[in-house]
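I'll show a typical protein example:
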Amino acid sequence: MRALVLRLHFYAGVFVAPFLLVAALTGLIYTFTPQLDQLVYGEQLRVEQSGGQARPLAEQITAARSAHPEGTLASVTTPAGPRHTTRVVLSVPELGERQRTVFVDPYTARVRGELTTWYGSTPLTTWLDDLHRNLHLGETGRLYSEVAASWLGVVVAGGLVLWLGRCRGQRAGSARGVLLPDRGAKGVRRTRRFHAATGVWLALGLFFLSATGLTWSHYAGERFGQLLDAVKGRAPELDTLLPGAEPPDGAEGGEHAGHGGTPKAADADPAAFDSALAAARAAGLGGTVEVTPPADASSAWVVAQNDNAQGLDGQGPGPRRLAHPAPAGSRGRSAGRGGAGLGAAGTRGDAPRLPAVRRGRRARTRGSGAAHLDLIGKCVVAYRLDVADDLFKALSDPTRRTILDELTERSGQTLFEICARLSMKHRLGISRQAVSQHLAVLEAAGLVESRREGRYKFHDLNTAPLRRIAERWLAPDPSGPEESTP
């Protein structure tokens, strides 16, 4: 039996060793892809001079489409920093699942170049990823990697059995004899003991590497996905279907909607990107965001914030997402379908919609049908209510107006502090639960933002929705002020 295990350990080790070496080296190199991308593609990723006012997205998109009219507009990613470019992603049928990304200077709207990307990865990063996954051998490489990863655990287990059996027979099985090599040994015995002791120390890491690597493989990964489906362990996906709309036949959702090989029928209105971005910024979405137009007339715009995933320049990461109804006129449809849309000019009937749902740990629905989801690294919010209705509902209650007055006087208060001020200063005898419900309504309207610091939750005043209302109805008259008519 020992001879069988020894031969199995030896030949499986010869088979696994090339894969293990390549996987370790390419994985190490992959950690430096942000720096390598900047070194190789600095002309496309960075601007020569920063500062000044950035041009509207519509102007940058127009410049990109003028230089590259092929394909259809899939998404737009805002710059990660003041010296980074805007990325206009085009879906080109000839590229299959890859995309053409056009890099635009946000300050001059000048096109700085284009790259064939794969879900945001540069050609260099994609090449390293393929080398890590399949050694650039296609399906043969994928199968070899999967088999090698599967046998890695057998190699480690066989080595442990052989070494523990030898130690128990020769050195009384002491912990020192198992974990440390015998420096007094000579020749092959010394090499074998160093090999065995090193394997013992690395065994747990190698088992972990084998198990986690198999989850990304073809066949084992597919079965792992079936297990996740069985236990409902997959991360929820953002539902972009507009309220009251019917999904088109064969429609598919998912996080890569708009990126794949099936192009959209026509480009969205470039001005609508600025409107969707403004609505997301007003809702508290900062940093680098990716704006994706609706796939069809029944879908919403999606604005995804990177929080924990590497992008083209290594900035930030996995998505915090906001879905927004498609702007009026976008893709040639009216705003009446699914409610008022968001227009580029912000005219009547084109008001942006505020989030009607808040964060939580479990998926659930409300009376309006809005999905309430929150997951690790991903906060999903769906826009449902019109901004005017939501704001006026929040401001209609005198208690909520009093809460806003207190936050105006001193922002960043806890629930306990707000309750104390309402009770002592305004003589309002309401419970903490009632105040919490009032704050939830104000948060849904975007007038209050909450943040956690340790065990405490602080509430801050946000006047952006009020300014947006003022800009909607109190637009400046270019002809100057006129006297009112009695």
Q: What stands out?
A: The longest strand covers residues 378-386. Residues 84 and 173 are 60 Å apart (CA to CA).
